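Deliverable D2.4 — example input (structure tokens):
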């Protein structure tokens, strides 16, 4: 099972070992986005999101290169990258999912213990999607802290 830490520095772990970051410059951003958004997604919008301002064909080529780097980083585990002609996704567990599960289970202290830093800390120059995700997660963290302080 692939585990991806999104709280604090981005880190992926598989087969019991920490994996090196993807070789492609935007590979880490692709890994982060896919881990943060479970399921399969159309390639076009992801390419446009990760390579804003780049012509569509060039962005899709860059996405193919990033997917290749991600597959190479993950190794031989089949099925981790859900890679279709027009879609892409990632099968993984994340600390963000665990944060949500613990919060829903009424375990705010355990949820807050997962927060090793801000969401996607140190992930390249922050793009709009990263800033929006950080703001949303920070609001969740503050709500959980308030719940813990009130209880």
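Example output (designed residues):
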């Amino acid at each position: 099972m692939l585990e991806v830490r999104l709280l604090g520095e981005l880190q992926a772990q598989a087969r019991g070992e920490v994996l090196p970051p993807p070789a492609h410059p935007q590979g880490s951003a692709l890994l982060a986005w896919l881990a943060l958004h479970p399921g399969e997604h159309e390639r076009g919008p992801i390419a446009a999101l990760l390579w804003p301002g780049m012509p569509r064909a060039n962005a899709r080529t860059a996405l193919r290169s990033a997917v290749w780097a991600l597959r190479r980083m993950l190794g031989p585990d089949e099925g981790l990258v859900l890679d279709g002609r027009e879609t892409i996704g990632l099968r993984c567990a994340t600390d963000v999912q665990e944060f949500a599960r613990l919060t829903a289970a009424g375990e705010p202290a355990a949820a807050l213990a997962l927060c090793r830093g801000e969401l996607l800390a140190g992930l390249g120059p922050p793009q709009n999607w990263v800033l929006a995700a950080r703001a949303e997660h920070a609001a969740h963290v503050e709500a959980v802290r308030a719940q813990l302080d009130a209880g």
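The longest helix spans residues 128-150.
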